[in-house]
Amino acid sequence: MTQIKSGYIAIVGRANAGKSTLLNSLIQQKISIVSPKPQTTRENILGIWTEDNYQMIFVDTPGALVPKNQLGSIMAKNIENAVVDVDCILLVIDGHEGIKNADLDLVEKYSKNDIPLVIAVTKTDISQPEKLMEQLSKLNAYPKIKEVYAVSARKNRGVEELKQHLKTYLTDEKMYFEADEITDKSERFLVCEIIREKALLLLNQEIPHGIGIELNKMTYNEIKNNWLIDANIITEKASHKGIILGKQGKMIKSIGTSARKAIEKLLGAHVNLQLWVKIKEDWRNSNFILNEIGYSQRD
Ligand SMILES: Nc1nc2c(ncn2[C@@H]2O[C@H](COP(=O)(O)OP(=O)(O)OP(=O)(O)O)[C@@H](O)[C@H]2O)c(=O)[nH]1
Ligand SMILES: [Mg+2]
Questions:
Q1: Of 26, 34, 59, 159, best ligand 1 pocket probe by most atoms within 8 Å of the beta carbon
Q2: 38 Cα nearest atom in ligand 1
Q3: How far is Cα 264 from Cα 108, in angstroms, rounded to an integer?
Q4: Residue 40: nearest ligand to its CA?
Q5: What tens digit of pLDDT does each residue of 192-242 get?
Q6: Were 82 and a residue from 10, 34, 57, 97 both cysteine, which residue would form a disulfide, CB within 3.0 to 4.6 Å?
Q7: How many A from CA of 209 to the centre of ligand 2?
Q8: Which among 19, 10, 27, 7 is positioned nearest to 89, based on CA atoms?
Q9: Helix pair 238-245, 250-267: axis angle to 10 deg
Protein backbone atom coordinates (compact mmCIF):
# COMPACT_ATOMS: atom_id res chain seq x y z
CA MET A 1 0.00 0.00 0.00
CA THR A 2 1.27 3.49 -0.81
CA GLN A 3 1.91 5.69 2.18
CA ILE A 4 -0.55 8.53 2.81
CA LYS A 5 0.98 11.98 3.12
CA SER A 6 -0.88 15.02 4.39
CA GLY A 7 -0.31 18.32 6.12
CA TYR A 8 -1.01 22.00 6.53
CA ILE A 9 0.51 24.75 4.39
CA ALA A 10 0.01 28.35 5.53
CA ILE A 11 -0.38 30.99 2.81
CA VAL A 12 0.86 34.33 4.12
CA GLY A 13 1.91 37.69 2.73
CA ARG A 14 1.08 41.36 2.40
CA ALA A 15 -2.48 42.53 1.84
CA ASN A 16 -3.55 42.30 -1.79
CA ALA A 17 -0.54 40.14 -2.76
CA GLY A 18 -2.84 37.52 -4.30
CA LYS A 19 -3.02 34.91 -1.50
CA SER A 20 -6.70 34.07 -1.85
CA THR A 21 -6.53 33.90 -5.64
CA LEU A 22 -3.62 31.48 -5.27
CA LEU A 23 -5.52 29.37 -2.73
CA ASN A 24 -8.46 29.11 -5.13
CA SER A 25 -6.12 28.16 -7.95
CA LEU A 26 -4.33 25.52 -5.86
CA ILE A 27 -7.59 23.77 -4.93
CA GLN A 28 -9.27 24.53 -8.27
CA GLN A 29 -12.36 25.93 -6.51
CA LYS A 30 -13.44 29.41 -5.55
CA ILE A 31 -13.58 29.27 -1.77
CA SER A 32 -11.87 32.43 -0.62
CA ILE A 33 -13.15 35.81 -1.76
CA VAL A 34 -10.95 38.08 -3.85
CA SER A 35 -10.96 41.82 -4.46
CA PRO A 36 -8.56 44.62 -5.41
CA LYS A 37 -9.13 46.20 -1.99
CA PRO A 38 -6.58 45.37 0.73
CA GLN A 39 -7.71 43.40 3.79
CA THR A 40 -10.29 41.41 1.90
CA THR A 41 -9.65 38.20 3.83
CA ARG A 42 -10.51 38.63 7.50
CA GLU A 43 -9.98 35.17 8.94
CA ASN A 44 -8.17 31.95 8.17
CA ILE A 45 -9.90 29.83 5.56
CA LEU A 46 -8.93 26.25 4.85
CA GLY A 47 -8.84 25.04 1.25
CA ILE A 48 -8.42 21.27 1.04
CA TRP A 49 -6.96 19.37 -1.90
CA THR A 50 -7.25 15.58 -1.73
CA GLU A 51 -5.84 12.94 -4.06
CA ASP A 52 -5.65 9.16 -3.50
CA ASN A 53 -2.58 9.35 -1.28
CA TYR A 54 -2.28 13.05 -0.55
CA GLN A 55 -4.17 15.65 1.38
CA MET A 56 -2.90 19.22 1.25
CA ILE A 57 -4.63 21.61 3.65
CA PHE A 58 -3.94 25.20 2.64
CA VAL A 59 -4.62 27.96 5.16
CA ASP A 60 -5.45 31.31 3.55
CA THR A 61 -4.78 34.17 5.96
CA PRO A 62 -5.53 37.90 6.17
CA GLY A 63 -2.88 40.23 4.72
CA ALA A 64 -0.15 41.29 7.16
CA LEU A 65 -1.33 44.37 9.05
CA VAL A 66 -0.80 46.67 11.98
CA PRO A 67 -4.10 46.39 13.89
CA LYS A 68 -6.10 49.60 14.20
CA ASN A 69 -9.12 48.12 15.94
CA GLN A 70 -10.37 44.94 17.57
CA LEU A 71 -11.18 43.36 14.21
CA GLY A 72 -7.59 44.09 13.12
CA SER A 73 -6.27 42.39 16.27
CA ILE A 74 -8.39 39.34 15.52
CA MET A 75 -7.03 39.27 11.97
CA ALA A 76 -3.43 39.55 13.20
CA LYS A 77 -4.05 36.73 15.68
CA ASN A 78 -5.41 34.60 12.84
CA ILE A 79 -2.15 35.02 10.92
CA GLU A 80 -0.12 34.10 14.00
CA ASN A 81 -2.22 31.00 14.60
CA ALA A 82 -1.99 29.92 10.97
CA VAL A 83 1.76 29.39 11.00
CA VAL A 84 1.88 27.24 14.13
CA ASP A 85 2.60 23.56 13.49
CA VAL A 86 2.37 23.74 9.71
CA ASP A 87 4.53 21.68 7.36
CA CYS A 88 5.37 24.63 5.16
CA ILE A 89 4.91 28.40 4.94
CA LEU A 90 4.09 29.69 1.48
CA LEU A 91 4.86 33.41 1.34
CA VAL A 92 3.09 35.17 -1.52
CA ILE A 93 4.66 38.25 -3.12
CA ASP A 94 3.02 40.49 -5.71
CA GLY A 95 5.36 40.28 -8.72
CA HIS A 96 3.57 43.10 -10.47
CA GLU A 97 4.20 45.55 -7.62
CA GLY A 98 7.71 44.19 -7.17
CA ILE A 99 9.45 42.98 -4.05
CA LYS A 100 9.12 45.64 -1.36
CA ASN A 101 10.91 46.01 1.96
CA ALA A 102 7.71 44.91 3.66
CA ASP A 103 7.95 41.62 1.74
CA LEU A 104 11.58 41.19 2.76
CA ASP A 105 10.59 41.84 6.39
CA LEU A 106 8.16 38.95 6.10
CA VAL A 107 10.83 36.74 4.52
CA GLU A 108 13.03 37.56 7.50
CA LYS A 109 10.24 36.94 9.98
CA TYR A 110 9.37 33.53 8.56
CA SER A 111 13.04 32.56 8.19
CA LYS A 112 13.37 32.61 11.95
CA ASN A 113 11.72 29.26 12.66
CA ASP A 114 12.36 25.73 11.41
CA ILE A 115 9.35 25.54 9.12
CA PRO A 116 10.30 25.28 5.43
CA LEU A 117 9.69 28.60 3.65
CA VAL A 118 8.66 28.64 -0.01
CA ILE A 119 8.02 31.83 -1.98
CA ALA A 120 5.37 32.27 -4.68
CA VAL A 121 5.87 35.44 -6.70
CA THR A 122 2.51 35.86 -8.35
CA LYS A 123 0.73 38.00 -10.98
CA THR A 124 3.41 37.12 -13.57
CA ASP A 125 0.75 37.59 -16.26
CA ILE A 126 0.99 41.35 -15.69
CA SER A 127 4.66 41.63 -14.71
CA GLN A 128 7.51 42.49 -17.06
CA PRO A 129 9.89 39.50 -17.26
CA GLU A 130 13.16 41.50 -17.09
CA LYS A 131 11.94 43.59 -14.20
CA LEU A 132 10.76 40.49 -12.39
CA MET A 133 14.12 38.69 -12.83
CA GLU A 134 15.91 41.68 -11.39
CA GLN A 135 13.50 41.76 -8.46
CA LEU A 136 13.88 38.05 -7.76
CA SER A 137 17.61 38.48 -7.20
CA LYS A 138 16.74 40.35 -3.97
CA LEU A 139 15.67 36.99 -2.54
CA ASN A 140 19.14 35.48 -2.98
CA ALA A 141 20.19 37.07 0.28
CA TYR A 142 17.92 34.76 2.26
CA PRO A 143 19.36 31.24 2.49
CA LYS A 144 16.40 29.90 4.49
CA ILE A 145 14.14 30.11 1.41
CA LYS A 146 13.72 26.60 0.01
CA GLU A 147 12.39 27.52 -3.43
CA VAL A 148 11.00 30.50 -5.35
CA TYR A 149 8.18 29.90 -7.82
CA ALA A 150 6.94 32.51 -10.29
CA VAL A 151 3.23 31.93 -10.90
CA SER A 152 0.10 33.52 -12.21
CA ALA A 153 -2.77 32.41 -10.01
CA ARG A 154 -5.25 34.18 -12.24
CA LYS A 155 -4.09 32.30 -15.34
CA ASN A 156 -3.20 29.09 -13.47
CA ARG A 157 0.39 29.30 -14.66
CA GLY A 158 3.07 27.57 -12.65
CA VAL A 159 0.57 26.64 -9.93
CA GLU A 160 0.63 22.89 -10.61
CA GLU A 161 4.45 22.82 -10.41
CA LEU A 162 4.28 24.74 -7.14
CA LYS A 163 1.71 22.28 -5.78
CA GLN A 164 3.85 19.27 -6.71
CA HIS A 165 6.78 20.86 -4.92
CA LEU A 166 4.72 21.63 -1.80
CA LYS A 167 3.76 17.95 -1.57
CA THR A 168 7.35 17.13 -0.68
CA TYR A 169 6.93 18.91 2.68
CA LEU A 170 3.92 16.90 3.87
CA THR A 171 4.77 14.88 6.96
CA ASP A 172 1.56 13.51 8.46
CA GLU A 173 0.37 10.03 7.64
CA LYS A 174 -3.38 10.33 8.03
CA MET A 175 -6.15 12.18 6.20
CA TYR A 176 -7.63 14.98 8.32
CA PHE A 177 -10.69 15.53 6.13
CA GLU A 178 -13.05 13.44 4.02
CA ALA A 179 -12.16 13.29 0.33
CA ASP A 180 -15.12 15.49 -0.67
CA GLU A 181 -14.47 18.24 1.88
CA ILE A 182 -12.99 21.37 0.33
CA THR A 183 -13.12 23.79 3.23
CA ASP A 184 -13.73 24.02 6.97
CA LYS A 185 -16.19 26.87 6.50
CA SER A 186 -19.97 26.56 6.70
CA GLU A 187 -22.35 27.49 3.89
CA ARG A 188 -23.54 30.38 6.07
CA PHE A 189 -19.99 31.77 6.26
CA LEU A 190 -19.48 31.39 2.52
CA VAL A 191 -22.78 33.16 1.81
CA CYS A 192 -21.75 36.15 3.95
CA GLU A 193 -18.36 36.25 2.26
CA ILE A 194 -19.92 36.26 -1.20
CA ILE A 195 -22.11 39.23 -0.25
CA ARG A 196 -19.07 41.04 1.17
CA GLU A 197 -17.06 40.30 -1.97
CA LYS A 198 -19.71 41.78 -4.24
CA ALA A 199 -19.98 44.84 -2.00
CA LEU A 200 -16.17 45.27 -2.06
CA LEU A 201 -16.13 45.00 -5.83
CA LEU A 202 -18.96 47.44 -6.42
CA LEU A 203 -18.41 50.07 -3.74
CA ASN A 204 -15.78 52.78 -3.88
CA GLN A 205 -12.52 52.87 -2.01
CA GLU A 206 -13.19 54.17 1.46
CA ILE A 207 -16.31 52.25 2.42
CA PRO A 208 -15.33 48.57 2.16
CA HIS A 209 -13.00 48.49 5.19
CA GLY A 210 -15.91 49.35 7.40
CA ILE A 211 -18.47 46.84 6.21
CA GLY A 212 -19.52 43.57 7.73
CA ILE A 213 -22.24 41.09 6.84
CA GLU A 214 -24.75 39.80 9.35
CA LEU A 215 -27.01 36.93 8.38
CA ASN A 216 -30.53 37.29 9.75
CA LYS A 217 -32.07 34.26 8.13
CA MET A 218 -31.10 31.43 5.79
CA THR A 219 -33.83 28.86 5.24
CA TYR A 220 -34.49 26.29 2.54
CA ASN A 221 -37.98 25.73 1.13
CA GLU A 222 -38.14 22.15 -0.11
CA ILE A 223 -41.37 22.54 -2.07
CA LYS A 224 -40.14 25.58 -3.97
CA ASN A 225 -36.52 24.31 -4.04
CA ASN A 226 -35.26 27.73 -3.07
CA TRP A 227 -33.36 29.44 -0.30
CA LEU A 228 -34.57 32.51 1.50
CA ILE A 229 -31.63 34.56 2.66
CA ASP A 230 -31.92 37.79 4.60
CA ALA A 231 -28.78 39.71 5.54
CA ASN A 232 -27.57 43.10 6.76
CA ILE A 233 -24.68 45.02 5.33
CA ILE A 234 -23.27 46.70 8.42
CA THR A 235 -21.49 50.01 8.13
CA GLU A 236 -19.99 52.35 10.69
CA LYS A 237 -21.01 55.71 9.31
CA ALA A 238 -24.46 57.09 8.68
CA SER A 239 -23.03 58.87 5.62
CA HIS A 240 -22.22 55.51 4.04
CA LYS A 241 -25.77 54.26 4.14
CA GLY A 242 -26.90 56.31 1.17
CA ILE A 243 -23.85 55.28 -0.84
CA ILE A 244 -24.43 51.59 -0.19
CA LEU A 245 -28.09 51.95 -1.10
CA GLY A 246 -27.27 54.05 -4.16
CA LYS A 247 -29.61 56.29 -6.12
CA GLN A 248 -33.08 54.76 -5.96
CA GLY A 249 -31.56 51.68 -4.36
CA LYS A 250 -29.49 50.88 -7.44
CA MET A 251 -26.25 50.01 -5.68
CA ILE A 252 -27.70 47.58 -3.15
CA LYS A 253 -29.72 46.02 -5.98
CA SER A 254 -26.52 45.44 -8.00
CA ILE A 255 -24.76 43.94 -4.97
CA GLY A 256 -27.80 41.73 -4.39
CA THR A 257 -28.06 40.52 -7.98
CA SER A 258 -24.38 39.77 -8.25
CA ALA A 259 -24.32 38.01 -4.85
CA ARG A 260 -27.49 36.03 -5.58
CA LYS A 261 -26.01 34.56 -8.76
CA ALA A 262 -22.84 33.45 -6.98
CA ILE A 263 -24.81 32.03 -4.01
CA GLU A 264 -27.07 30.09 -6.40
CA LYS A 265 -23.96 28.52 -7.89
CA LEU A 266 -22.69 27.61 -4.43
CA LEU A 267 -25.98 26.16 -3.16
CA GLY A 268 -27.21 24.69 -6.45
CA ALA A 269 -30.72 26.10 -6.00
CA HIS A 270 -32.66 29.31 -6.56
CA VAL A 271 -32.08 32.01 -4.01
CA ASN A 272 -34.28 34.82 -2.82
CA LEU A 273 -31.84 37.34 -1.33
CA GLN A 274 -32.96 40.28 0.77
CA LEU A 275 -30.31 42.82 1.77
CA TRP A 276 -30.52 45.69 4.26
CA VAL A 277 -28.09 48.39 5.35
CA LYS A 278 -27.61 48.85 9.10
CA ILE A 279 -25.45 51.44 10.82
CA LYS A 280 -23.53 50.11 13.80
CA GLU A 281 -21.06 52.69 15.00
CA ASP A 282 -17.59 51.40 15.77
CA TRP A 283 -18.69 47.79 15.25
CA ARG A 284 -15.11 46.76 14.55
CA ASN A 285 -14.34 47.48 18.20
CA SER A 286 -17.43 45.80 19.61
CA ASN A 287 -16.67 42.30 20.84
CA PHE A 288 -20.39 41.64 20.99
CA ILE A 289 -20.99 42.45 17.31
CA LEU A 290 -17.73 40.82 16.17
CA ASN A 291 -18.84 37.68 17.94
CA GLU A 292 -22.30 37.84 16.44
CA ILE A 293 -20.89 38.16 12.94
CA GLY A 294 -18.52 35.30 13.65
CA TYR A 295 -15.16 37.03 14.03
CA SER A 296 -14.43 35.59 17.40
CA GLN A 297 -11.06 35.83 19.08
CA ARG A 298 -9.48 32.38 19.21
CA ASP A 299 -6.24 31.71 21.01
N1 LIG B 1 -3.31 39.86 -13.01
C2 LIG B 1 -3.39 39.14 -11.87
N3 LIG B 1 -4.08 39.61 -10.85
C4 LIG B 1 -4.14 38.87 -9.72
C5 LIG B 1 -3.48 37.61 -9.61
N6 LIG B 1 -3.69 37.14 -8.37
C7 LIG B 1 -4.47 38.05 -7.74
N8 LIG B 1 -4.74 39.07 -8.54
C9 LIG B 1 -5.56 40.27 -8.22
O10 LIG B 1 -4.99 40.93 -7.11
C11 LIG B 1 -6.02 41.45 -6.24
C12 LIG B 1 -5.83 40.89 -4.85
O13 LIG B 1 -6.04 39.49 -4.87
P14 LIG B 1 -6.43 38.66 -3.57
O15 LIG B 1 -6.30 37.22 -3.93
O16 LIG B 1 -7.71 39.13 -2.99
O17 LIG B 1 -5.23 39.09 -2.61
P18 LIG B 1 -5.01 38.72 -1.08
O19 LIG B 1 -3.54 38.60 -0.87
O20 LIG B 1 -5.82 37.54 -0.70
O21 LIG B 1 -5.55 40.02 -0.38
P22 LIG B 1 -6.05 40.24 1.18
O23 LIG B 1 -7.03 39.16 1.50
O24 LIG B 1 -6.66 41.58 1.13
O25 LIG B 1 -4.80 40.19 2.00
C26 LIG B 1 -7.35 41.04 -6.91
O27 LIG B 1 -7.81 42.11 -7.68
C28 LIG B 1 -6.96 39.86 -7.78
O29 LIG B 1 -7.81 39.69 -8.89
C30 LIG B 1 -2.74 37.13 -10.75
O31 LIG B 1 -2.14 36.05 -10.75
N32 LIG B 1 -2.74 37.95 -11.85
MG1 LIG C 1 -7.26 37.28 0.72
A1: 34
A2: 24
A3: 43
A4: 1
A5: 999 999 999 999 877 777 899 999 999 999 999 999 999 999 999 898 999
A6: 10
A7: 13
A8: 10
A9: 70
